[in-house]
Design goal:
alpha/beta, EreA/ChaN-like  fold, nine-stranded mixed sheet, two-stranded antiparallel sheet, 18 helices, 11 strands, globular, Erythromycin esterase family protein, Hydrolase/PRTase-associated, UCP036794_erythomycin, Emycin_Estase
Amino acid sequence: MSLGTVFKFKNEGNAIDEGGFILFDDKKIIKAIKQEAFPFESKSDLSALIEAVGECPFVLLGEASHGTSEFYEVRTEISKILIQEKGFQVIGVEGDWPSCFTVNNFVKGFNPSTALDALKDFNRWPTWMWANEEVLSLIKWLKEYNQKTQNNVGFYGLDVYSLWESMEEIIRQLEKSGSGDVEKAKKALSCFEPFHRKPESYGISAAFYGEDCLDEVTELLTTLRKNHLQYENGHEESLNLKVNGLVALNAEHYYQSMVKGGPDDWNIRDHHMVSAIEEIVKYYGEGTKVIIWEHNTHIGDARATDMAKEGLVNVGQILREKYGKDQVYAVGFGTHRGTVMAANRWGEEMEVMNVPQAALGSWEDLMHAAGPNDKYILFNNENAHFFNNEIGHRAIGVVYNPEYEHLGNYVPSVMSERYDAFIFIDETKALTPIELASLLT
């Protein structure tokens, strides 16, 4: 699913405004927001949310865009508290495994030596998602915390896009260990080489001409799983190899499905992210607690949105179904207005864009109408009925056009079913990217 998809509400006898949203009694919802919301002015105000998390082993922290500073900053503060007070050991993010593993090595004191060096591998578009000042601050804190406490909190990428980078990392690591399995890895990579790192070229060839590399990557992953204990020497080599192998396999499926259209590519991606989480938990051991940073469209239960009608699932839904709703705590984020870092088209230069005031009748509009201040709501059995209307909820991707956001950036959602909590920042600003060009010279 693209965040550019047009979402409209069904008209079942309800009045609909010009933006396509069902009109309901706004005043009742605004009153309920005023009644149920906690003010949020500093991290000390988060105590009710942290208490509500309880002993959930999976805490999912969303974002309404990939380019908003406050979303990163607030997730950082929540993550710090969860790590310090509730023993969380893992942060998993919507990023590539190889580049995030460089950060993981840094925060655990392996290498590289500086936080800036740790972000150099985020050199593929959209670079600003993780190579930014907000993440730089987080990873500096993580390294210092690990050193002071002798803890082992890790930072991992859960996404599926890094097919070539993951294959190259597998070969590099197997060569370093002197393993004979490196020949299988080179054979698998050679199968992909004719496509010159162009996923769409591979997808077309595999999907429509039957020229795929499935057998090669399946054989490689099977070998890596069978021999994983041979690769471990204290720097998480076995985990690194297994997840890179998983990326190669699922990326192959993903790029085939991508060119065909439909829900399969989205679903493959989100199932992969859950599989990566489970590999990390298996490596760390039973009882491991995981914080997940991803877009709202991944962490908020898809069944509470129109995504379900399109056959789409997501990380929040899959985890709830597999482990139980009481084991997963999903926190959505949103804003009324401000600025954001995004691009006009895929692959184009990033720029600071204005985020207009939220559409009339949307969730963000009602949160603002309840008071132009930052706040959060904890959804529970007692208040869920106040928030069970299907309502437009803004979602901004890495590609964004503010002028036309009313046509495709509002996802119809039942908020009390989609999330366990929602954090609203009334006015936000774009995050601050780190210019990688100067670091790579």
